[in-house]
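Lab channel / #folding
Pinned by the channel admin:
"Please post every new chain as: sequence first, then the structure tokens as a reply. Keep commentary short and put observations after the output so the thread stays searchable."

First post following the new format, from NK:
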Amino acid sequence: MALKLLSPLRVGKVDAANRVFMAPCTRLRADLDQTPTPIMAEYYAQRAGAGIIITEGVNPSPLGRGEHNQPAMYTDAHEVGWAPVTDAVHRAGGRIFAQLMHVGRITFPELLPGAANPVAPSAVRPDPGFRGYSIRCPRHDRPFPTPDALDSAGVAREIDHFVEATTRAIRAGFDGVEIHAAGGYLPMQFLSSATNLRTDSYGGSIENRSRFLMEVIEGAGERVGAERIAVKLSPGFYFNDVHDDDSTALYSYVCQRLSGIGLAFVEVSDYRGRHSEDGIDPIGLVRRNYDGVVVANGGFDQDSAEELLQSGAADAVSFGGSFIANPDLPKRFETGAPLNAPVRSTYYTSPTGHFEVGYTDYPALSATP
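Reply from TO:
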């Protein structure tokens, strides 16, 4: 039986050569001013065999930064810095989407302009004692401050930053963008009842709490076309102390709203059941309520991914650690070659201080004895 993982897939206006997508993976190899570095072009080009590469989280706003060396897309320098990355991927035959990630309250003043306080839908501080699933990369050993609640002008400003970052991304050569509405970051903070206590049109009902995300998508789609826009969701997971009173109702509504827009895809994380606090089936929920391409993410290997695709539960699968350690992952799946093991200690930094260690030095098959 032919592997469905290796079959082509039409995604918006992009023809993906296979259904082995590269998941967004924070790597922190940009300059301190958030401009991409030359080695990032090498890294992503090495992985151009993916059906679609989804980049690490790219900060769309001066107030959206969560880490040192996180790349961004809100200045001319950022836009220019990304062009060699997309060019390198395209020259290698690949397709690449930029994931736009605004961390909202999950940051510290020293990472923001003028040591500004973090912003969020409401002034709700992440629980210092939270022991659920956190995706801080790397994890911080101190509590986050209480964020400032965005006023109406601030909400409009951050939506505009997403839209402008989308425009810049397409100008920089990206095939599309993915709006990161998972991970406990700003769009998810608006979606979730525990972090959105607003009483205006962006808070209260599920419809109102979804408004921020929908206005980002609609604004971005008006600029570049909905077929260039993707969304990442994580129903039922408590990321960074962000959760909802009724995840099934919330995400059913969101996915129904996303249906019919003509998006490129929805990526949904399920983490193979390891962290599903709400006890729901995230992939099944999205598949039932969304009428487009579904990309599953979270702890899959080749066999479990192939089984999922053959069942019809998803159309593609995104791989994180496997793609970090195996730049030619689809070829390894095709040939049955063994996989390199990822070195987690180099995910976000290199012990030697050299960006290439644990980044561009994983061997491809041609370099493997």
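NK: The chain has one domain: 4-367.
TO: also worth noting, The mean pLDDT is 93.
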